[in-house]
Design brief:
This protein is mainly β. It has one helix at about 35-40; strands at about 15-20, 20-25, 30, 45, 55, 60, 65, 75, 80, 85, 95, 100-105, 110. The termini are far apart. Pfam families: YjdM (PF03831), Zn_Ribbon_YjdM (PF08274).
Length: about 110
């Protein structure tokens, strides 16, 4: 056809556009164009210092002493960080470190356990 996506319900290639919607003439399924864009977005993959893929909820270990900005405290090598959360940005890990509190880390300074 003309590059339109197939029907997600029945797989028919005979879909057509109707305003802001795609319609399947075979099963009468309708879906929005934004749903197709969301499916095509690439999910960002975050790697640790060793190249392992990180996921939400993983436990990691700090591989370098990290100075805490605005404080005289330091996160020491070998500090275990549980239940990380991946976020977009330069510091791509949000976590809570025992004795320090909530902070953001760069994935290049941690390794997955």
């Amino acid at each position: 056809m003309s590059g339109l996506p197939p029907c997600p319900q029945c797989g028919s290639v005979y879909t057509y556009e109707d305003g802001e919607m795609f319609v399947c003439p075979e099963c009468a399924h309708e879906w929005s164009k934004s749903a197709v864009v969301d499916e095509n977005e690439q999910k960002r993959v975050v790697h640790d210092a060793n190249g392992n893929v990180l996921n939400d909820g993983d436990t990691v270990t700090v591989i370098k002493d990290l100075k805490i900005k605005g404080s005289s405290s330091v996160v020491k090598v070998g500090t275990k960080v549980k239940n990380i959360r991946l976020v977009d940005g330069d510091h791509d890990i949000d976590c809570k470190i025992d004795g320090v509190g909530a902070m953001s880390l760069k994935s290049e300074f941690v390794k997955k356990i």
